[in-house]
């Protein structure tokens, strides 16, 4: 979601030892529909879980990203972005010159009435200029993008459209090594190496609950089997005692 340049300039104040400040908020409250907000949260859930063990992968979104030092107007705020080669730590904004010049490798913008035109033209040109390897647009409503998802990949100095892979029936992100497909309001990621979908936070919670229930059921079955075995052993002992007494 773009940060208005004028709002950024109004919020900027001189700081000691700095020519410019880089505000991490434009002071406005972001308002989105449930499908938009839920899709952004779900994307971040999936990617953060997937890259949890990678200390050099940073997943964020709805955060100011500055790409030119000394120019606070050179700013965008992607709905979701992934940086490969940046430390996993807390930030208020992402400034490329403080990260060794590393820019996001993967960006997703969620289409809405207020952003659709900018995402399709101005935003795409900006991400191409910055050097973002892959830029994706996702429409959880299907109103602006009939198929729900479209993407571009840097090739030969410019963006080229990413096409659906016929063999798997979905898109491939070379930057992330994942497959992508639109499922209504959800942009689903899939790990082709493990052959399974990445899970959102609610899905992870449900999976853990199902696992716990299965473990509890297994324990009950084991306890019942042990009880029956003990009962059978007692009966055998009783029979053996009776046989000895009858001899």
Would you kindly provide a written description of the structure presented here, covering whatever features stand out?
The chain is elongated and about 105 Å long. The protein has 247 residues and is an alpha+beta fold. The chain is 34% helix and 22% strand.
Structural class: alpha+beta
Instruction: Count the E strands.
Output: 13
The major pleated sheet works out as: 6 strands, mixed
- How many angstroms does the end-to-end distance come to? 92 Å
Helix content: 25-40%
Question: What is the radius of gyration computed over CA atoms, rounded to a whole number of angstroms?
Answer: 27 Å
Helix/strand order: HHEEEEEEHHEEEEEEEH
Shape: elongated
Percentage beta strand:
15-25%
Q: Which strand order spans the largest sheet, edge to edge or round the barrel?
A: 1-4-6-7-8-9
Oligomer: single chain
Low-confidence blocks of residues = 1-19
Estimate the mean pLDDT confidence.
83
| Helix segment tally | 5
Question: Can I get a quick summary?
Answer:
With 247 residues, this protein is α+β, with helices and mostly antiparallel strands.
List the helices and strands and how they pair.
Blueprint (H helix, E strand, L loop, with lengths): L4 H7 L22 H17 L6 E4 L4 E2 L8 E2 L3 E5 L9 E2 L10 E5 L5 H5 L1 H9 L3 E5 L10 E7 L2 E5 L8 E3 L4 E6 L2 E6 L4 E2 L3 H46 L1
Parallel strand pairs: 2-5, 6-7
Antiparallel strand pairs: 1-4, 2-3, 4-6, 7-8, 8-9, 10-11, 11-12, 12-13
Key features?
four-stranded antiparallel β-sheet; 34% helix; disordered N terminus
């Amino acid at each position: 979601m773009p940060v208005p340049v004028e709002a950024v300039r109004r919020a900027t104040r001189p700081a000691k030892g700095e020519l410019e400040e880089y505000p991490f908020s434009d002071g406005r409250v972001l308002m989105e529909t449930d499908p938009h907000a839920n899709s952004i949260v779900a994307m971040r859930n999936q990617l953060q879980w997937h890259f949890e063990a990678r200390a050099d992968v940073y997943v964020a979104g709805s955060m100011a990203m500055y790409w030119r030092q000394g120019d606070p107007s050179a700013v965008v705020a992607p709905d979701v972005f992934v940086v490969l080669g940046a430390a996993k730590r807390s930030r208020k904004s992402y400034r490329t010159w403080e990260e060794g010049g590393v820019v996001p490798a993967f960006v997703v913008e969620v289409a809405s009435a207020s952003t659709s035109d900018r995402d399709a033209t101005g935003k795409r040109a900006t991400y191409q200029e910055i050097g973002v390897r892959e830029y994706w647009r996702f429409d959880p409503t299907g109103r602006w993008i009939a198929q729900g998802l479209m993407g571009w990949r840097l090739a030969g100095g410019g963006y080229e459209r990413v096409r659906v892979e016929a063999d798997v029936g979905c898109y491939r992100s070379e930057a992330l090594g994942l497959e992508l497909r639109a499922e209504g309001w959800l942009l689903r990621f899939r790990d082709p190496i493990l052959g399974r979908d990445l899970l959102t936070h609610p899905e992870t919670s449900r999976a853990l609950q199902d696992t716990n229930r299965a473990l509890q059921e297994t324990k009950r079955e084991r306890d019942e089997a042990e009880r029956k075995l003990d009962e059978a052993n007692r009966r055998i002992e009783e029979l053996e005692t009776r046989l000895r007494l009858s001899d």
